[in-house]
Amino acid sequence: MKALSHLLDSAKLIDPNPVSLVCSKTPSGITNLATVSWWTYLSLDPATIGFAMMKPSYTGEMVRTNKKVVLTVPSDKISPKQIMQCGSFTGRTKEKVKEFGIELKSLPDCDIQIPVHSVIAIQCALREFVDAGDHYFYICDVENVYGDENETPLFAWKGYSKIAPAKEV
């Protein structure tokens, strides 16, 4: 076993990770999408998930402000380029959904839209966020969960150098 130069190098050794999009609502009422590389189930009772986002993240700011969020796992019908663009640009200055051509749909009893081609959508209320160095860790209470068995999830391979369904790699 050898020492790794950076914590991110470990992600390349334990692939794959599901690619995920955090969906939030901006003050103008539009849905903003941000790619996240890590989220986890925290508890089944009460149903709780957590995810990490860099501190300056506009999406994180919207989650902290609105106290609402939907975490989705996009399907292979959304291009890897579109997904990576959602994590490479800020919603502070760019209307990502419109500019990257991502079609949205509504969920029942939720004012945050999600990508049409989502495998799962976990609708949450923010319970708290914790300072975790250069990131905040968001702890969210799950309000509703939706899934579509007809969609194929995308995964990140080799630290996001490849995004593909598990069957393709």
From TrEMBL:
Pfam families: Flavin_Reduct. It comes from the Bacteria. Residues 13-162 form the Flavin reductase like domain. Keywords: Flavoprotein. Its cofactor is FMN. This is Flavin reductase family protein. SMART domains: Flavin_Reduct. The lineage of its organism: Bacteria, Pseudomonadati, Thermodesulfobacteriota, Desulfovibrionia, Desulfovibrionales. Belongs to the flavoredoxin family. It comes from Taurinivorans muris.
